[in-house]
Design brief:
The structure is a single chain. 25% of the residues lie in helices and 31% in strands. It contains 5 helices and 10 strands; from the N terminus they run E-E-H-H-E-E-E-H-E-E-H-E-E-E-H. The chain has helices at residues 18-26, 28-32, 67-75, 107-113, 151-166, and strands at 2-6, 13-17, 39-41, 47-54, 60-66, 86-89, 102-105, 125-128, 131-138, 141-148. The strands form 4 sheets. A 3-stranded antiparallel beta sheet has the order 3-4-5. Strands 8-9-10 form a 3-stranded antiparallel beta sheet, with helices on one face. It has a two-stranded antiparallel ribbon with strand order 1-2. A hairpin with a 5-residue loop joins strand 3 and strand 4. The mean pLDDT is 88.
Length: 182
């Protein structure tokens, strides 16, 4: 069974496996702080619990618990390694915290999976004059793939090179259908 937990500050839900939901609900500390009912959408897109506590010696301490990380640490700890120590979502949905969707990744893989900041809208594709350059990073060095007439052709060339270099850990662009400019 699947649980949908409504976020406190957004019209979105977090997805959890039933046994994960039960374990979190029955945890003494998490129940005490009402963890499940105080999940919020973080600016990073993840579900997070944050609470500020007043310290006895003065000042404040903010406790932050990322749901995807908590679930991975409790239920997928055997898959964590020194290198693969970041938690990611296989399908890209950071609110999908089902065990089948969470994976331990290395920093380099997580970086490759990040959303693009390219103005063209495709990772590794940049407009130069009236053409599009495709590039990919290998060991922190930019490798020229080629020049193309359309951003879609450049994105496809990037995807091919990414698969060749990184296999399943490589970033792949989702190619949008072409619309004619008027």
């Amino acid at each position: 069974m699947l649980y949908k937990v409504k976020l406190k500050n957004a019209d979105e839900n977090v997805l959890l496996d039933d046994h994960v939901y039960e374990a979190l609900s029955n945890d003494a500390y998490l129940s005490k702080v009402d963890f499940i009912n105080n999940l919020r959408r973080h600016s990073s897109g993840c579900a997070v619990f944050q609470k500020t506590w007043k310290k006895v010696e003065g000042g404040y301490k903010t406790e932050t618990i990322y749901l995807h990380r908590l679930v991975a640490e409790r239920f997928l700890a055997d898959d964590q390694t020194r290198k693969n120590n970041l938690v990611g979502a296989k399908n890209g949905n950071k609110l999908d915290c089902r065990l089948e969707n969470l994976i331990w990744r290395s920093r380099s893989v997580a970086s490759r999976q990040r959303k693009t900041s390219s103005k063209v809208g495709y990772t590794g594709v940049y407009k130069e004059n009236n053409r599009y350059r495709a590039v990919i990073s290998v060991n922190r060095k930019s490798i020229h793939i080629g020049m193309f007439d359309t951003p879609e052709e450049a994105a496809l060339a990037y995807n091919k090179k990414s698969r060749e270099l990184y296999g399943d850990d490589g970033k792949l662009n989702v190619i949008r259908s072409k619309t004619k400019a008027k």
